[in-house]
Amino acid sequence: MPAPMPSPPVFRRRDHGAHVLVVEDNPVTLHFLQTALESNHYRLTLTSQAAEAMAALDQGLPDLVILDLHLPDIYGLEVCRHLRRCLGGDDIPVLVVTVEDGPDGHAEAVRAGVDDFLRKPILPVELRTRARSLIRLRQLRQELRAERESLLDMHAQKENLLQYVAHDLKNLLSAAQATLEMMGTEEAPAQTLRYQDRMGASLRAMLAMVTDLLDLSINDRAELVAERELFELSPWLERVIHEFEPLAARCRRSIELEVPPGLMVDADPHLLRRVISNLLENAIRFAPEGTLIQVSACESQDSCGPRIMVSDLGAGIPAELKEEIFERFVRLKSAPATQSGRGLGLAFCRLVMNMHHGRIWVEDNHPRGSRFVLELPNSAGAAL
């Protein structure tokens, strides 16, 4: 005796059991709509007046509204407008069944929020197909929204983790740097001092990178605030450059400062110092040995404020990358493999300049190399 054939799997459409609100005052048409839609296995709420339909919407939103425009109490589009005012009602599709075929009536219906039209007399297969398509489109929108919210939640968790890790790394690097400075003694051998200098430079570079990463992450959530003050640029730049002279000397580069006396800037000195530090570190890293790095400043020739320039004699930056290098994680392909930059410093520089309502850009430094230009807004006291 042959074994019985297995029963085929039962296929159930995704719109099976969907809730449909039908608003139609003609009993014959209402019965026709009911019969056609029940064959799609929908749950139906049948109403013949606009007031009944709006009360049903207040009780709970359906998956689809099928609406006649000519109702005995209120014009049918008021039901659609009421739906759109309900919480979540902007996502419910509305299918209008009507004898009207003029463009003016269609335009008004579209403005009220109608999604599709069926002109009477209606074919059952067309009604079922339109209803199925509208319900399925709503379900797809809901699925896409859920996936988007899931992705946003994962991104927020990743940003939180990144911020926590960067914060902890910053504390550890600061402690390591402080310990290294305490270990330094004049009696130590010269070779030990050189190693300590190299370790200190590496720690400072890592600390600056982690700090930039942390600030960029924080700014994505709540904008950083610049605590601006008016100060003279020349002595301030001298102090910043003084911190980098040992690093430049070890790398066989030199730094030259040219700033007119009395030039004032209105900026956050801490944030601006980090911008200059990033530019100086890049210049020292990429400039050839034995070359000069120039830091200069001047008054702008137009209505803008003072400009600060950091120039080197390196290989320069290709024209097609002069904007892109200020994006996060963008590095020059020609950068030596030994360089440890991660493409965060210049992104942080642009962030700080935007906070000051200023600008940063890079241009060619003749005869060779690059010149990074910072343009700050005018201050009330431009000079002493």
Itemize the secondary structure elements and their pairings.
Blueprint (H helix, E strand, L loop, with lengths): L18 E5 L3 H12 L4 E5 L2 H10 L4 E5 L8 H9 L8 E5 L4 H10 L3 E4 L4 H60 L6 H32 L7 E4 H18 L3 E5 L5 E4 L1 H18 L5 E7 L8 E5 L33 H11 L3 E6 L5 E6 L9
Parallel strand pairs: 1-2, 1-3, 3-4, 4-5, 7-9
Antiparallel strand pairs: 6-8, 9-10, 10-12, 11-12
Helix pairs in contact: 1-5, 2-3, 5-6, 6-9, 7-8, 8-9
Brief sketch in words of this structure:
The chain is α/β, with parallel strands linked by helices and 384 residues long. The chain has 9 helices and 12 strands.
Task: Describe the model.
It contains 9 helices and 12 strands. It has helices spanning 27-38, 50-59, 77-85, 103-112, 124-183, 190-221, 233-250, 269-286, 345-355; strands at residues 19-23, 43-47, 64-68, 94-98, 116-119, 229-232, 254-258, 264-267, 292-298, 307-311, 359-364, 370-375. The N and C termini lie far apart (110 Å). The model is unreliable at 336-342 (pLDDT under 50). The strands form 3 sheets. It has a 5-stranded parallel beta sheet, with helices on both faces. Strands 7-9-10-12-11 form a 5-stranded mixed beta sheet. It has a two-stranded antiparallel sheet with strand order 6-8. It is elongated and about 105 Å long. It has 384 residues and is an alpha/beta fold.
